Amino acid sequence: MFLIATIFCAAPAFAQTAYFAAIPDLPIATGLAESENQQTSFATSDDAGLVMATAHGAPMPDQVRAFYTESLSALGWAYEPAQGSEDLTFLRGRERLVLNIAPHDGGTQLRVRLIVRPASMNAD
User: Fold this and answer.
1) Residues contacting residue 77 through CB under 8 Å, at least 6 positions apart
2) Residue 60 and residue 55: Cα distance in Å, rounded?
3) How far is C-alpha 79 from the chain's CA centre?
4) CATH topology for 19-116?
5) Cα(99)–Cα(45) distance, rounded to whole angstroms?
6) Which of 50, 65, 75, 76 is most buried (CB neighbours < 10 A)?
7) Between these two residues, 15 and 77, which has the higher pLDDT value?
8) CA–CA dist 12, 104 (Å, integer)
9) What are the phi and psi torsion angles at 51 (to 5°)?
């Protein structure tokens, strides 16, 4: 009975999690919505490229920043402090995730860049 109650209570929270269309394992912060027609991807080779996406909504920038600093480590991302930049930067293997979080129309605009570096060669 306890297990059923736990699953039932957790279901609404799980159901509310949205992910970027172009980055299916990156959650969209609670209260933001992905901006339509504002995603771009470039493949520089078979195993490298760049994906950009945008989201916006009512939460304040500090709330969005807290969402990502608290949740991305569970997805394998490691925070990388950036000098001279207010962007949040995270690393995961060959991937670099850069989040630009800025005030916009009384809420927040989030610009996401996912950069995938090519696999290293033996000579590297």
Assistant:
1) 90, 91, 92, 97
2) 13
3) 12
4) TATA-Binding Protein (3.30.310)
5) 23
6) 65
7) 77
8) 28
9) -125, 135
Residues contacting 66, CB < 8 A, separation 6+: none
Average pLDDT over residues 28-55: 83
The position carrying tokens 């996912």 is: 114
Q: What is the pLDDT of residues 57-94, one digit of tens each?
A: 999 999 999 999 999 999 999 999 877 778 999 999 99
Q: Tokens 């995961």 label which residue? A: 92
Computed on alpha carbons and rounded to an integer, the radius of gyration of the chain in Å comes to 17
Q: How confident is the model at residue 4 (pLDDT cuts 50, 70, 90)?
A: very low
Say if residues 23 and 112 touch (Cβ distance below 8 Å): yes
Q: Return the domain boundaries, the chain.
A: 19-116
Which residue is associated with the tokens 């590297």?
124
Please state the three-class secondary structure of 83-108 as a single string: CCCCCEEEEECCEEEEEEEEEECCEE
Structure tokens at 82: 């950036």
Please tell me the pTM assigned to this model: 0.79
